[in-house]
Amino acid sequence: RGHTVVWHDQLSTWVTSGNYSAAQADSIMKDHITTVMTRYKGKIGIWDVVNEAMGDDASIRASSYWYQKLGAGYIDRAFQLARAADPSAKLSHNDYN
């Protein structure tokens, strides 16, 4: 199981400290998902595409870098990119509680 390609936590400092536009943030996410999932295509059958997108109150985690840059559509976008990178993989959202 691949865990995880998009997460609000554990982002590189160059991502979080950069003053990126929404288009640039989307490109960063696309490059990351494509690079990681293409590398392991056919070797990992299930991917946690988005991790912990929901807050403890069951609403979308508004503090997420990806949410702040791309809005709630970042979740759908991440899944679209993941599907394009590995069409045969099973895709999931991972959360806790």
Automatic annotation (TrEMBL):
Coiled coil: none annotated. Pfam families: Glyco_hydro_10. Keywords: Carbohydrate metabolism, Glycosidase, Hydrolase, Polysaccharide degradation, Signal, Xylan degradation. It is an enzyme of class 3 (hydrolase). The keyword Hydrolase applies. It catalyses: Endohydrolysis of (1->4)-beta-D-xylosidic linkages in xylans. Residues 1-97 form the GH10 domain. The keyword Hydrolase applies. Its EC number is 3.2.1.8. GO terms for molecular function: endo-1,4-beta-xylanase activity. InterPro entries: GH (IPR017853), GH10 (IPR044846), GH10_dom (IPR001000). One of its GO terms (biological process) is xylan catabolic process. Belongs to the glycosyl hydrolase 10 (cellulase F) family. This is endo-1,4-beta-xylanase.
